[in-house]
Amino acid sequence: MIRIEDIHISFENKAVLRGVDLEVRDGEVMVILGASGCGKSVLLKHIIGLLSPDSGKVFVNGTEITSLPKHELYRVRRSFGMLFQSAALFDSMTVYENVSLGLTEHTSASETEKREIVASKLELVGLSGTEDMYPAELSGGMRKRVGLARAICMDPAIVLYDEPTTGLDPVIADTINELILRLQERLKITSIAVTHDMRSAFKIADRMAMLSEGKIRFVGTPDEISASQDPLVVEFLSHR
Amino acid sequence: MNLFRYLGRLFYTFLLDLGGVFVMAIGVLKSLPSQFRHGKLLSDQMLLMGVNSLPLILLTSIFSGAVSSWQAAYQFQGYVPLRYLGTAVSKAIFIELSPVLTALVVAGRVGAAIAAELGTMRVTEQIDAMETLAIDPVGYLVTPRVISGMIMLPILIVFADIIAILGAAAVAIFFVDVEPETFFNGMKMFFEVSDVTSGMMKAVVFGGLIAILGCFHGFKAHGGAEGVGIATTRAVVTASVLVLVSDFVMATLLFSV
Ligand SMILES: Nc1ncnc2c1ncn2[C@@H]1O[C@H](COP(=O)(O)OP(=O)(O)O)[C@@H](O)[C@H]1O
Ligand SMILES: [Mg+2]
Predict the structure, then answer these.
(1) CA atoms of B223 and A88, how far apart (whole Å)
(2) Which pLDDT tens digit goes with each residue over A145-199?
(3) Which of A64, A66, A178, B79 is deepest in the core (most CB within 10 A)?
(4) Smallest-distance ligand from the CA of A38
(5) A18 forms bridges with which residues in the sheet?
(6) Is the ipTM of this complex over 0.90?
(7) Is A34:A53 a contact under the CB 8 Å cutoff?
(8) Is B135 on the interface with A (CB under 8 A)?
(9) Using an 8 Å Cβ cutoff, are B10 and B3 in contact?
(10) Is the Cβ pair B129, A82 closer than 8 Å?
């Protein structure tokens, strides 16, 4: 379980998060909604300790991570995978090297074992046989899927998705949505996705949270959020 | 009033950067044990720095040797016998010219390349991605570059020394009409091994400085392609300045008057 308690952070005097509280249960898909630039990526980066808050706490399975020394934070991070908005593949490495990097660094898996694991993850995201390609040779949708394969290569318990479908055409967006659901069903992964793509949000979410003006404005199931009378929520949903 | 504020701000940033470089250097030291597993990262960097810089360094060395020979001969005219030409020129080359000029060329070539590469990785979130895979970016990216700089620059200096001496000798022989034996005897007359080794020792420091400043500014880059450009410029400027400053400091330590 992940619990976020009263997170505040500002950049150059601009308050981005002003007291965020949120709980994410094991095995659910939590979707965080919010307008562009409202701090969704910043919030996600706090959950995995890439940013540390000015004040507030983040608990991952009971461990408070904002005050952990580096090597312990790294140990906690091994139970995470993260898909970045721009996929953030390592340009100097092939697809195979990208996906297998975690295995290379953290396990003693042999080359054959790594090949096998990478092939199975690439198959899962529908990109079998792309091992020897470089990121520059891939389309945007393919990169996102390689990024997803990399994120799940170490079989994490929690996967964070930053705008997994934004900027993709609807067909590819749907394959990504299905992947997220399949991972949750098959591997019981806890997923946190931030997005402003409402269509995708309603496809994958068990629960949704809406971030607005640095706070969580609303948390609930898709049905609850659809029924909400809160003018801000209604306004946001009207763009569906 | 505004000027004071500007200078104060500049000084404040300078202190912050100094602290940042220091913290990064500690990270490099801490990650040394893990480098044994990363042999390939180091050898890749060494190849890149050494092989890619060599042609440019040979080119600049031949001319810095040539011009020092020409200038020395010109200044000696009528005062100092030309049999000391080899002495003066080789001392200047081994002790100062070759280490410092090579370091400045490498700062422009390698320092810029490091800052641009790591800066791009920073602004495209590749460094964050590495963190999420629980891999320490300092150990993975910075340490191999710093070690490689500290090893490769002294080696490059040896090549630079040789080529600069050949350039100087060529000018002495073909333009100043000094006999080859005279030039090389002059060089041998007061030659000390410590002339060359002190240059190489300085090169270890220069190489480390250039690499860590490239990494530091690359890691600090923000704001897209423009931010990468700024980081690259800063890496080259700060490395060049620090090469000259540290050269002076080391000169006073290595050669007491
Ligand atoms: N490292 C940073 N330094 C300064 N400002 C930042 C940083 N990261 C994010 N911001 C600012 O925080 C705000 C929220 O950004 P972000 O979380 O990326 O928004 P989004 O909800 O679109 O993902 C933006 O105004 C952005 O400029
Ligand atoms: Mg974002």
Answers:
(1) 15
(2) 999 999 999 999 999 999 999 888 888 889 899 989 988 888 889 999 999 888 8
(3) A66
(4) 1
(5) A8
(6) yes
(7) no
(8) yes
(9) no
(10) yes
- Nearest-angstrom CA–CA distance, B36 and B47: 17
Pocket test for ligand 1, best of A42, A160, A212, A236 (most atoms within 8 A of CB): A42
Instruction: Return the CATH fold of A2-79+156-237.
Output: Rossmann fold (3.40.50)
- Residue B134: count other Cβ atoms within 10 Å of its Cβ: 20
Tokens of B149: 């700089």
Look at residue B98 and tell me whether its pLDDT is greater than 70.
yes
Q: Which residue of B has its CA nearest to A72?
A: B134
Nearest atom (ligand 1) to Cα of A162? 23
Taking the complete model, does pTM exceed 0.90, yes or no?
Answer: yes
**CB B120 within 8 Å of CB B216:** no
A129 backbone φψ class: left, alpha, beta (φ>0; ψ -120 to 50): left
**Ranges B83-92, B186-195, B230-239, most confident:** B230-239
Chain B residues with beta carbon closer than 8 angstroms to that of A74: 134, 136
pLDDT of residue A239: 74
**pLDDT reading at B19 higher than 80:** yes
Q: Residue ranges of the domains in chain B?
A: 2-254
In contact, A104 and A114? CB cutoff 8 Å: yes
A21, two tokens: 């509280």
The secondary structure of residue A26, as a DSSP letter, is: T
Q: By three-state DSSP, how is residue B111 classified?
A: helix
Quick check: B31 and B136 in contact, CB under 8 A? yes
**Does residue B257 have a pLDDT over 80?**
no
Question: Which ranges of chain B does DSSP label H, i.e. alpha helix?
Answer: 2-30, 39-76, 85-92, 98-106, 112-123, 126-132, 137, 143-174, 180-189, 193-220, 224-254
Question: Which residue type occupies A205?
Answer: A
Q: Measuring CA to CA, how many Å separate A18 from each of A38, A51, B79?
A: 11, 15, 78
According to the model, what pLDDT value does residue B79 have? 87
Burial class (CB in 10 A: 0-12, 13-18, 19+), A74: middle
pLDDT band at A240 (very low <50, low <70, confident <90, very high): low
Predicted confidence band at A236 (pLDDT cuts at 50, 70, 90)?
A: confident
Are the CB atoms for A52 and A207 separated by under 8 Å? no
What percentage of chain A reaches a pLDDT higher than 70? 100
